[in-house]
Amino acid sequence: MGNAQSPSADPRFVTASRAFTNQELEDLRSLFVSLAAQSQSHGKFVSPSVFQAYFGIDGMLGDRMFDLVTQNRNDGMLTFEDLVISKGTYEKGTRDEIEEFIRDLCDVAGDGVLGRSDLEAVLKSIHKAIFSPKIDENGLNSHENVLEVFLNASTYSKKGEGTAENGMSSADFRNWCSLLPSVRKFLGSLLMPPDSGRPGFQVPHLQHPENLTSDLLILRKEYAWHIGGALSQHEVEEWKLLYHSSINGLSFNTFLGNISNGDGPTVLIIRDAEGFVYGGYASHPWDRRSDFYGDMKSFLFQLYPQASIFRPTGANNNLQWCAVNFSSESIPNGIGFGGRANHFGLFLSASFDQGHTFSCTTFNSPCLSKTNRIRPEVIECWGVLLKGVQNERPDLVKGTVLERFKEDRNMLKMVGLASSSD
């Protein structure tokens, strides 16, 4: 099979080979033989077009990946040695080696400056690979504007040399990947077999009533993919719409009633009067408490005008808040995430017509909107359907009252503590 089978004097190949088991090396050899045959190279190399078609990446990102795995030889030939060396670094290397490879991958221009134009090209390739966007009658990609929210999360503190465009420092790039874990997952799994359920490629199936038009929904597929980047694979299979304020009204009781029959996690999304879109992932069901609860799987996120995810820092355990019909000012009625009572990372009052968002150490998150005080215009809540778990949840219903809190409410009335928060 030509140079694919001959002994190698390249020490990089020898070192990389040690990172794989014998079976893994045989699997890589079988893959190479198959792709080389498709390339009509007499088994000697894999062509760029066959490589990109198999791994499902094209455009500038696909070109850049091929350049990196062929050691920038610019000869258009991927050898077996190249495949082993690149996968050995990209998938089996140290954390620093992997991060350096991914950062070099994003420098699609190959000029050593990782700028906004590079990231834009990367995101276009990602979007095409995952969503196969359709072109409208004017020849425009109707979803292309969503890429701006991912670009808006980037910073460029490295002054460019000989160019007007500033670049990303290593810290800038790490921060961007931290805010966008879906992007990081995608970029870190490109050389995995396409049929292996590659991380970063999965988009939750969004289940909602057929009579609810897409223009009423805040959660579009790109946003769901973004949020799913912080979740495990079984948590991004299917999400079901449990509550939508345009149908159910801005009602706390209806909200709680609609989500009360499910024990799984939920995704809360808000669009406010300023046009900002943000929310939180609640890993625990919304249960009436007088204090914070939850675990470190919860997080806050932004969707517009910037996409970001803010995970727990471990600074405190003030994760979820759900207070119903308390009369004490120290126990504000409503739902929230992070921070402290009356100064949450995100909070919706029980009236559902106001709330607030402050920077908080719980998630190291900033104010999620334009101002601290928020006026919700649309509120959505999606239930995360976990595989193998019974998730019999009702469709969107009209005006139901929270059944699970009836006993608590009656008891509060008896002692004169019930408020008019609903």
From TrEMBL:
Residues 217-385 form the TLDc domain. Transmembrane segments: none annotated. SUPFAM superfamilies: EF-hand (SSF47473). It comes from the Eukaryota. PROSITE patterns: TLDC. This is MTOR-associated protein MEAK7 isoform X1. It comes from Elaeis guineensis var. tenera. The lineage of its organism: Eukaryota, Viridiplantae, Streptophyta, Embryophyta, Tracheophyta.
